[in-house]
Fold:
Amino acid sequence: MNVTQGLRRMLQVDPKGIATIDGDRRHTWAQLGDRVGRLAGALQNLGIKGGDRVAVLMLNSDRYLELYLGIAWAGAVIVPTNTRWSVIEIEDSLHDCRASMLVVDKAFAAMGVQLAKAIPSMTLVYADDDAGPAEAKNYEALIAAAKPIDDAMRKPEDLAGIFYTGGTTGRSKGVMLSHNNLVTNALHTLAEGLFPEGSIYLHAAPMFHLANGAAMFVQLLSGGRNVIIRSFTPEGVMDAVQAEKVNVGLIVPTMIQMLVDHPSFGSRDMSSLKRILYGASPITEALLERAMKKLPHVAFHQLYGMTETAPCATHLPWREHTGEGRAKGRHRGCGRAIIGVEVRIVDVDHKPVPPNTVGEVAIRGNNVMMGYWERPEETAKALIGGWMHTGDGGYMDDDGYFYLVDRIKDMIVTGGENVYSIEVENVLAQHPAVVQCAVVGIPHERWGEAVHAIIVRKPNVAVDPAEVIAFCKEKIAHYKCPRTVDVRDEPLPLSGAGKILKRELRKPFWEKEKKTA
Amino acid sequence: MNVTQGLRRMLQVDPKGIATIDGDRRHTWAQLGDRVGRLAGALQNLGIKGGDRVAVLMLNSDRYLELYLGIAWAGAVIVPTNTRWSVIEIEDSLHDCRASMLVVDKAFAAMGVQLAKAIPSMTLVYADDDAGPAEAKNYEALIAAAKPIDDAMRKPEDLAGIFYTGGTTGRSKGVMLSHNNLVTNALHTLAEGLFPEGSIYLHAAPMFHLANGAAMFVQLLSGGRNVIIRSFTPEGVMDAVQAEKVNVGLIVPTMIQMLVDHPSFGSRDMSSLKRILYGASPITEALLERAMKKLPHVAFHQLYGMTETAPCATHLPWREHTGEGRAKGRHRGCGRAIIGVEVRIVDVDHKPVPPNTVGEVAIRGNNVMMGYWERPEETAKALIGGWMHTGDGGYMDDDGYFYLVDRIKDMIVTGGENVYSIEVENVLAQHPAVVQCAVVGIPHERWGEAVHAIIVRKPNVAVDPAEVIAFCKEKIAHYKCPRTVDVRDEPLPLSGAGKILKRELRKPFWEKEKKTA
Structure:
């Protein structure tokens, strides 16, 4: 089936039920269906054809959810754009997928106008409460003027969305996910029991990110309610939970920490909240303790996966965070393969290794992506024998629980975002004072990992770390830039093959962490 | 994915957990995996190739479950055979699908030998506790001698099984279900929350039937436990529930009635039982009352569907059997479309009709069959625009609940079995004393519907109803034969087009039922 199936079903099953809540605005499934049909009609009127790419650069809103559905309803392909990227990075991705349209909200109106000038073939649409810039078509006006059209009824194997992830060469790759990938992942998540009937889900994580997207597709398939806030803030979450009796949310450990440590925590009624799903990194002992004390009625569930697996691959259920599971240290891992998905650890020849042996995590299932957009070589490297080779290092214990130990592809996960070291290194290498450089992830209480750069300077040239960081911020997204820079005179340690020994560079930071853990 | 995916996953996730219980025999997932791998190896040694059809004619057993997996593991196609069919009907279906192998148990050993003689190209395998007939290979000996092979890894779109259903022309049709059909249906059922983690399912309904098969595929996908009894008996169910702490079962209303009305009911501990799924017909008021009183801790859920939809299409949850739902009469219908499936009512031109209008039930989803085996014309008639046209008449109310009112294709459902009137009429018409005949379903307390024949006799020829029934029993399965025969002299009422007005014939029986309901 396709990602619009749940909407079609809900129009029959519960048309008067509330589908979306965004501030004071509530839409029933019938209203959502009407708007989606009109939106698809408007897209068609603007020349969008089946398979065309429509990019969205917006903060969270009910309109974002409508776009996920409406673009699919029109038979087109959504390209949710990372709101934290620089304009250069975004322009690059829009060129890469040859986007026919870009939809922006108030927060990104100026950037949208700039991008539309740079790519004149691209139609700009403004989707917010006001009229918006003159250069853009107004979303509400388009919907009001269009007649609803029938669902284009994309096939399961058709491309539904292109989700860009940080690229290893400084240019990001577009992960192609089919309707079947997204629907299958939603069914797997439902089968795991994470979204029982009556789920009221809070969209606090960014809607462009597939972690939130996956939860959204679950709600759209099963008819759950969507409560939407612009972006994560501890008080915003607390207000929405209290006002709308939210019972499930997805937030990364960084956000959990900000929530439970917030000074006004305890001032709102959070008793409706039953389940918090988290990912991106394990939860630390200290945070788990605090979270359990502050939210004793909440079950925490870890999900591990990646955009390429649409995204869920493993699940660490709540019970493994407590009692016997915790005594065994299972909360430090990412759980077991979820229903419908197979996970294994392979060696460099892609052959499975025995339990307790470190290798690369590989994932198989109907959730595995179609490939990277127009990158057959990178696709062939990632998808081998039907298995997605994640680039994550890890091992499996005797009971089928997985533990991540390293990033084979040298990726840093900071605050839920992926940063590829090489991309940052490419920028650093452009700095006139830099002779040699390496970027590694180092432990960070709030972000899980922080980007740390080690540079070797030209002899007798003064280097200011703050200036190096500012240099990077001009070129790449802020979250990718080093937070700390270590300036050295001696050359970096090299392997026999002449590669920088990053493990050596990381070691002192992580050993310290081990002792404190 | 394919139907063996869950086994592969369970071999990693819980190899020591109990997968099957059949009397005193318990197999872990690891043992099951070993036996399935060997069985597939044995099939390969016997010349079974990818796509070959392997028929199974057995009562319920753990070996039947192994065959479902092992045949798929070898890349072949299972043909579960109706144990209630006559030898002629079975031979017909084996010819139709050109079965390479037939597996029988003790109950069907003699019939197996007879069939193998009739079809010499077919290998006969005997799967039971003893040695079996000399004409058959012994299943346990084959497994002991074979080496386990790797999973053939059939693709989602590959044919997994051919499930024969009663044909409208006296010859049954083979419903082709893909791996994707079966896995998708299992995911839909899991998404509906009917098999939460820790489900212990009782195989009391026949394993050849897809109603039970669907529950089995759920358990195999999600790693639930399978408790197996040879066939349904009230005491067998009670013993198994008590001994193995069964918490979910699937039995038709006929069986529910036999269970709760059994004299020894109450002598066993049934407290583990949480959920009974039923289908084939709505539950009567009277039975619902008795069942609720006798099993107050059990939630009853109705599922409607057909083999062609793998099989689930609608779900009437427990809450609609009580309180407000019951006051609205929803327990007389079959519920709403399940997650992942769309259902609608269409007119003779296959166009949707408004709510509360009677038409044909049509079903769309990834669960809809590939088609009928080597019957392109019948496939084209059933699958129109992606919708399975069920032949069931019904309507949808304003709240999306479906109610069945008639069988468009003139089918009788008796004790969970489908009987096509025309097949029975074809036999009756061969009787020397019969001038004209019609077969209709009439209400029956135990079987839902009973087969009733109205015949017009040759003038001045004495006709004994019992002799007419005996005449039918020689030619077709006993459950298809009329239970009652009404002998008339006056011609049957005809429509303008000369068709027998069956509605007129049924009317007096069903009006009486309405009054008593």
Notes: Chain B touches chain A at residues 1, 5-6, 8-9, 12-14, 153, 156, 183-184, 187-188, 190-191, 193, 196-197, 221-223, 336-337, 339-344, 365-366, 386, 396, 400 (CB under 8 Å). Residues 29-45 of chain B form the longest helix (17 residues). The mean pLDDT of chain B is 92.
